[in-house]
Every structure is written in structure tokens, then in C-alpha cells.
């Protein structure tokens, strides 16, 4: 049993800030929390007492990361999605056939995300089995909770000749071997995930085969869904139905499937995915570049759809989820108000779309955990001790003024204003995983 003493800030519901000042968290050898009590009631010694100028938050759950795009983070955002893929992204991902290069990237990516408080990540690797397995091994080694998927893509028009699976049956076989190899690592934290890139990159035979593979293995599924005008229309043209309907027919929209972006979902699609129990990786910054629309978080939540947050490295140009919380609020405000001043205020936006920073943080923690169906996202008994500590002291750069700030304002300043350097400790399943600074 390990005991940590800290002040905890969390969002157990989208509209509730939970403040637990000076509490003791106890967790067992598997990293599962057994008790959270006020320090004076808990009594006894603790293993670690965080300074009073520190707050503890539940770990951040990034539902959408393209691991091999780490080297192009912050660049290449000048093209629409289809051209961005062919001009920048597929050539970069193809390089991960070089295992040495892949391993060097993973050795930068993992500490980079953990030091920003990303305790769970859902990864697209590349099409290459060795690079995919090496990513899963890096997650095990660094102690990050992760879902790691070999990217399957075989469509002769939707992919370049130098970066695609040979055919559908070879692709399904490679994904099956990749799942077995990740399972064989025996890690309770790192799981395989079936990963058709998206409909335009996959033949019908591949989509069908991967639906069957998900059925046979019980692995979760991730893909992209109604991401942009082009991608959404492509699926309508190919099948005469929306992306959500097509994915369901192929057995890919399932309980806890992670569907990225979804800015072009119709309400029918939203209801369909909600009833299936699939979830959305909302990637607010990436959608500004590639989505052509703002995903309506509030409407989706009100219809019972599961939603969490994604950075979409590198379609989104920032790592870590604290910046994405602010972006989620910002884009929701743009959706509410609209953006073209020439339209009258009544016609400019979609009234009632705004979310606040609390809801955004809920998405990054509890929302993501519900999408994946994992016991994380909260600092409560029965959940894993996945957490990050943030320094808000006088030298931290987080401007806390006791004369004017209550906990609600401090929370907002932390989520909007804390820099990666303010993060002093990160734990996954009770194990300290960073940041390791010299
Ligand atoms: Zn993506």
C-alpha cells in the first residue's frame, strides 16, 4: 500500500468541480486506489506529501495520437486533409519501415507525452508490424497506459504505392499478428486496438475483415469518422450512407470504438453511435485545420454520446491535453457565436453550443475513460492512480492570488495556464512515470 497526501482537483461530472483539500490517497500494489480521505481522518504516515503549493489532477486521456507524425508536430498545416496526407504524412509514416528510426521517435514521444500529463494514449502506429510492436514496448517500458494499433490501409486509390498493405487478406493477417504480439507482452496497461485508417484508405474487403477481427479478438476499434467535407462526402458517394452507418455495417462501430473528429455527424448518426456505445475523440485544434466544421460537443453529450478529447498529433499542432481543453472551449464559443460578422447575430452561430473549462477537463479525464471503458479519469476508490501534480507556487508562472482566487478560479488558471514545466509528478497505475528532468 502506498499513500500520497495532496490537494485534489477533479471534474467528476461535466458541471461539477470537486475540491478535496489536504487528502490522503491510498493505492495498492496494482496501482488501484483503495481510499481517499481527509488527512486528519486518515492519520498515520504517508509515502509522499506534495507541497501545499501543488494540486493533484486525474491523469489526462488522449484519445487520438498518430505516433509516427511526432516528427512533423507543428508543421505542414497549410493543405486540406487529402493533400496533407499524400504530400506530407504518408511519406513520413513510410519511413517507419526503418525500425531504428521508429525506436528513436518513440523514445522521444513517450517522455514528451508523459511529461505533459498524458497518462493514457490511444495510438495509431504505422503499417509496419515491427514499429508497432516497438511502440507498444516503449509504452510498457515508460509505463504509459496505451492502446496501440497497427494501421491497416490497402486501397489502391486512397493510399500511395509506397505506403500500403499488399491486399486485404495480408492486411488483416498483419493486424492479427500485431494484436497477438502486443498481447504477448503481457502488460495490463498496454492493449492492442484494431485500426483501419479510415474508409477512403481501405477496401471493402479490408473493412469487413477488420470488423471480423475485432469480433474474434474482442480488441477495441479506432478509426476516423465524418472528419471533413471531403471525407464525409467520399463515404456518402461510395456507399450512399454516412460514415457512421457504413462503419456499423462493417462491424467497426462497436461499444467503446474510438471514432475521431466526427464534426459532420448528422443527429441520426449521433443517436446511432450513442446507442451502440461508441465514442468520439474530439480534436478541437486539428478540426480547425482539417475538419471544415466544429464538432458540437454539447449537442452530442445531450444526446447521450460518449465524448473525450484528442490532440490528433500532428493534425493538431500541440502535444498534451491541457492546451486542448482550452481549444475545446474556444471552438465551442466560435460555434455558438458564429464567425462571419456579415451575418446577423441570429443567423451567425449555433446557439447553446458553448462549453466551459470544467466540461472540457471532464472530457479530457472522465469522458475519455468512458469512451474507452477503463477505470481511470477519477481519483476515487476503484480507479487506477493515474494522476499529475502541478506546481502553482509563487515561482511557477501560474498566477494565483489568494486575495481574489477561489478554487474555481485556480482550477481554471491551472487548466488554461499551466505549462509542461509546471508538471512535477506523473503517475500511471501508482508508478511514477515522469517527468524526469536533469
Ligand atoms: Zn487522425
**How many extended strands?**
17
- Strand content is 15-25%
Heteromolecules bound: zinc ion
CATH topology of the largest domain, by name, is TIM Barrel
- CATH architecture label of the largest domain: Alpha-Beta Barrel
CATH superfamily of the largest domain: Metal-dependent hydrolases
Question: What is the CATH top level name of the largest domain?
Answer: Alpha Beta
Supply the number of helical segments: 15
Low-pLDDT parts are none
State the distance separating the first and last CA atoms: 29 Å
**Amount of helix:** 25-40%
| Average pLDDT taken over every residue | 97
Shape: globular
Number of domains in the coordinates? 2
Largest sheet entry: 9 strands, parallel
Q: Supply the helix-strand structural class.
A: alpha/beta
If you compute it from the alpha carbons, what radius of gyration comes out, rounded to the nearest whole angstrom? 21 Å
Helices, strands, pairings?
Layout: E1 2-13, E2 16-27, E3 33-38, H1 39-42, E4 48-49, E5 54-58, E6 60-66, H2 81-94, H3 99-114, E7 118-124, H4 129-142, E8 145-149, E9 151-152, H5 168-184, E10 190-196, H6 204-217, E11 220-225, H7 229-239, H8 243-249, E12 258-261, H9 267-276, E13 279-282, H10 284-290, H11 297-302, E14 306-309, H12 322-337, H13 345-348, H14 357-372, E15 387-391, H15 407-417, E16 423-428, E17 431-434
The chain binds zinc ion.
Zinc ion (ZN) binds at residues 64, 66, 224, 260, 312, 315.
Amino acid at each position: 500500500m502506498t499513500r500520497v497526501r495532496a490537494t485534489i482537483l477533479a471534474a467528476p461530472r461535466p458541471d461539477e468541480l470537486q475540491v478535496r483539500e489536504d487528502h490522503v490517497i491510498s493505492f495498492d500494489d496494482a496501482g488501484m486506489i483503495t481510499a481517499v480521505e481527509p488527512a486528519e481522518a486518515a492519520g498515520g504516515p504517508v509515502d509522499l506529501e506534495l507541497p501545499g503549493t501543488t494540486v493533484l489532477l486525474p491523469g489526462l486521456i488522449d484519445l487520438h495520437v498518430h505516433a509516427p507524425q511526432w516528427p512533423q508536430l507543428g508543421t505542414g498545416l497549410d493543405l486540406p486533409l487529402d493533400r496533407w496526407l499524400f504530400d506530407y504524412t504518408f511519406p513520413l509514416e513510410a519511413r517507419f519501415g526503418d525500425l531504428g528510426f521508429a525506436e528513436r521517435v518513440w523514445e522521444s514521444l513517450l517522455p514528451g507525452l508523459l511529461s505533459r500529463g498524458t497518462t493514457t494514449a490511444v495510438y495509431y502506429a504505422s503499417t509496419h508490424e515491427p514499429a508497432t510492436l516497438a511502440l507498444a514496448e516503449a509504452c510498457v517500458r515508460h509505463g504509459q497506459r496505451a492502446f496501440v494499433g497497427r494501421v491497416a490501409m490497402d486501397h489502391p486509390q486512397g493510399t500511395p504505392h509506397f505506403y500500403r498493405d499488399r491486399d486485404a487478406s495480408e492486411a488483416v493477417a498483419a493486424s492479427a499478428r500485431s494484436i497477438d504480439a502486443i498481447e504477448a507482452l503481457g502488460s495490463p496497461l498496454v492493449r492492442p486496438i484494431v485500426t483501419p485508417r479510415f474508409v477512403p484508405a481501405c477496401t471493402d474487403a479490408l473493412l469487413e475483415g477488420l470488423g471480423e477481427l475485432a469480433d474474434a479478438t474482442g480488441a477495441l476499434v479506432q478509426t476516423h469518422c465524418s472528419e471533413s467535407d471531403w471525407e464525409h462526402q467520399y463515404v456518402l458517394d461510395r456507399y450512399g450512407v454516412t460514415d457512421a452507418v457504413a462503419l456499423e455495417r462493417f462491424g467497426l462501430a462497436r461499444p467503446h470504438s474510438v471514432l475521431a473528429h466526427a464534426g459532420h455527424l448528422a443527429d441520426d448518426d449521433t443517436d446511432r453511435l450513442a446507442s451502440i456505445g461508441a465514442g468520439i475523440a474530439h480534436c478541437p485544434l486539428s478540426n480547425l485545420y482539417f475538419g471544415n466544421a466544429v464538432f458540437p460537443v454539447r449537442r452530442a453529450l445531450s444526446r447521450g454520446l460518449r465524448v473525450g478529447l484528442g490532440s490528433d498529433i500532428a493534425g493538431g499542432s500541440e502535444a498534451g491535453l491541457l492546451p486542448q481543453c482550452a481549444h475545446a472551449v474556444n471552438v465551442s464559443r466560435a460555434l455558438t457565436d458564429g464567425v462571419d460578422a456579415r451575418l446577423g447575430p441570429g443567423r451567425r452561430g449555433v446557439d447553446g453550443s458553448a462549453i466551459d473549462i470544467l466540461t472540457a477537463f471532464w472530457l479530457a479525464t472522465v469522458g475519455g475513460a468512458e469512451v474507452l471503458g477503463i477505470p481511470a479519469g477519477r481519483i476515487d476508490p476503484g480507479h487506477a492512480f493515474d494522476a499529475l501534480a502541478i506546481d502553482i507556487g509563487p515561482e511557477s508562472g501560474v498566477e494565483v492570488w489568494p486575495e481574489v482566487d477561489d478554487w474555481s478560479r485556480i482550477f481554471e488558471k491551472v487548466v488554461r495556464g499551466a505549462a509542461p514545466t509546471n508538471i512535477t509528478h506523473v503517475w500511471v497505475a501508482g508508478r511514477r512515470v515522469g517527468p524526469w528532468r536533469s
